[in-house]
């Protein structure tokens, strides 16, 4: 456990940290961004492209994989890594967020949550215990506990209830985790999730409860759900002030390049978001020179490389004009190249942030970069 | 010109040939299969994947590229190779087939053909001369003449007319070709197209005319348009009997693995078809063990590699069960892997055919393989 996470350096002028996760022999430099691979594939990316970009940790969604292909299939294949032929690491979420955001029907109780599948309407029941067992079947390197997510805005009473329930479920999750073993020979780690919405005292209460339990890491949940950005930063900062120095901190579902840099400054180590992949498929390209709407007619004749600032074949050797053509002609290769570019950019973003933290220049670099992005 | 095409060996027991095309310094072993890259992309394939599979010659559609992105764009990028960042070779068709198959409106005259865009209905006019010039702009390594294509079935009179017109247009095409120069420093070659439908005497007449003109190679057009397979083989054989030994023969738009093998036996050197890519995207997988409908429920738990008979990462390391899941979940990676597998298979098919021709075992191997495919 000692070597699971190590902080290498904390910035002098802010809370930013550079470190390492070590999962089943694979070292993952932090801060880290995890591409989202909902159904066991990061949409439009060949696994070889993810290796090329040096992604070592991707995310899978327990809720989605439970429904399709189903855990019977994943079990037969002896875990998600085998099923999807992925040599690096996987973090799986618990399905808590999906159950609360994707479903027309859900029934919440202290025992767990009943919900209907968004695919065929069939009824299912998740408990903190079953979700740990589902993730034993998935065999992810890091699993998340089932949490009680609330929409934004929510009233104080509802958020307070979610904090209490998430704590109770955390206790049950840890117990189930302790009383069970990995199925496929991979060591598994488990993270708690802090709730509390945008209420500072409820966040503190949630933290207090979870910190009394021995999780391998802590996630900040319930942000990036519609609250103002300043609120997100305020709550993140409150959490990172109270979270232990020696455990990884994961801000779930965040976010834009600026969000990520601001939250790295606040001491967050891990991020995931559909933004680079989903927006890429919609034609929004993130580059070291700023954002591009690739369908814009002004790019029709552009011979500029997609992003000469990134050191890979696709960013350097395909042009903006060609990428625009692929989108206009509805070609799949457009989705492939856009996703590749955006994930190359996100990788560059966190890798450069890490480098700058180590060299003591993080804030200076970050402020310049954000300015650059805003002017664009 | 002497080194443009070379026959290395002709089988003793059939008309199959192994040879080489040499286009702008790139050697292309024949028989060759050309993946179709309509809009300047082989759908769902990263160019790096095409290099991996050692594809050296792909096809682009003049009609489609003329409409989107438009030749002004391609000209600005100094040719199709540059525009799509493709280091190997490109053959472009003339648009003849598309004008005759995709359009609701077309008006044929001796001068050329007027048609409406399938995208926005706008009116355009192609002549044999303009189509040569379009392909000068595209800068393809091999260009095709504009031909007068007929649907199947068509009456004798209409086919006779198409043979005459295709000959007249061939004369004009060659003249335009001789009186113009490549624009981008790549040597360009030009192929005539034999028409004549399923009428042996008209095929002979078409051949007689075209062979009096000095084309670099000859295509057999107007087949694989709905006629019985036996008819296709009969006409192909008639053509290869009369075509010169020392020039490449290209059977347009063919076909299934069996079609390709039969026509290699009949002495065809070059093929193109949307089958492996289009059917791949629809979930039909070609493997060395036969065809697979990947959506079939029986594959849900299959741990078999997609195709252990092919020597590449994707065919060997991803399973049938995972590929099925990707299709069921409508994941883009499914289209990517299926296309990759099918093109790996088609490459294997023609490369192995070539090897067997050289070793004198072509017919034996071919008959076994076709039997195997039928039993499957």
Overview of this protein structure:
- 2 copies of one chain form a homodimer.
- With 376 residues, chain A is an alpha/beta fold.
- Chain A has helices spanning 47-52, 62-76, 80-84, 96-101, 128-138, 156-178, 200-211, 229-242, 257-265, 275-281, 313-317, 320-328, 332-359, 362-375, and strands spanning 5-10, 17-23, 26-30, 32-34, 57-61, 89-93, 106-108, 113-116, 123-126, 142-144, 189-194, 217-220, 249-251, 270-272, 284-287, 290-293.
- Chain A has 2 domains: 5-272, TIM Barrel; 274-376, no CATH class.
- Helices cover 44% and strands 18% of the residues of chain A.
- Chain A has an 8-stranded parallel sheet.
- Chain A is globular and about 60 Å long.
- Chain A starts with a strand and ends with a helix.
- Chains A and B meet through helix 2, helix 11, helix 12 and helix 13 of A and helix 2, helix 11, helix 12 and helix 13 of B.
């Amino acid at each position: 456990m000692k070597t699971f996470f190590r902080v290498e350096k904390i910035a002098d002028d802010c809370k930013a940290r550079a470190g390492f996760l070590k999962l089943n022999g694979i070292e993952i430099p932090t801060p880290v961004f995890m591409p989202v691979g909902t159904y066991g594939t990061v949409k439009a990316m060949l696994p070889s492209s993810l290796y090329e970009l040096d992604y070592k940790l991707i995310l899978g969604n327990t809720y989605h994989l439970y429904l399709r292909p189903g855990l019977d299939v994943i079990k037969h294949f002896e875990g998600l890594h085998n099923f999807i032929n992925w040599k690096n690491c996987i973090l799986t979420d618990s399905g808590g967020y999906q159950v609360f955001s994707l479903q027309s029907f859900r029934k919440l109780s202290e025992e767990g949550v009943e919900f209907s599948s968004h695919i065929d309407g069939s009824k299912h029941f998740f408990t903190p215990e079953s979700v740990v067992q589902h993730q034993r079947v998935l065999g992810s390197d890091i699993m998340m506990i089932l949490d009680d997510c609330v929409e934004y805005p929510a009233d104080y009473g509802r958020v307070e209830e979610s904090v209490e329930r998430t704590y109770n479920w955390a206790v049950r999750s840890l117990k189930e985790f302790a009383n069970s073993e990995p199925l496929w020979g991979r060591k598994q780690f488990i993270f708690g999730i802090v709730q509390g919405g945008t209420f500072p005292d409820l966040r503190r209460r949630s933290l207090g409860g979870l910190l009394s339990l021995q999780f391998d890491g802590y996630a900040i949940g319930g942000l990036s759900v519609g609250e103002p950005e300043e609120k997100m930063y305020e709550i993140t900062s409150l959490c990172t002030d109270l979270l232990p120095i020696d455990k990884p901190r994961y801000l779930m579902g965040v976010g834009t390049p600026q969000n990520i840099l601001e939250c790295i400054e606040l001491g967050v180590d891990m991020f995931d978001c559909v933004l680079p992949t989903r927006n890429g498929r919609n034609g929004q390209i993130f580059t070291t020179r700023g954002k591009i709407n690739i369908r814009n007619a002004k790019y029709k004749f552009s011979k500029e490389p997609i992003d000469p600032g990134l050191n890979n074949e696709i960013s350097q050797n395909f042009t903006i004009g060609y990428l625009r053509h692929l989108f206009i002609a509805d070609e799949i290769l457009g989705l492939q190249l856009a996703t590749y570019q955006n994930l190359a950019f996100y990788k560059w973003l966190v890798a450069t942030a890490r480098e700058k933290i180590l060299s003591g220049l993080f804030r200076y670099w970050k402020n310049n970069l954000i300015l650059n992005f805003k002017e664009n």
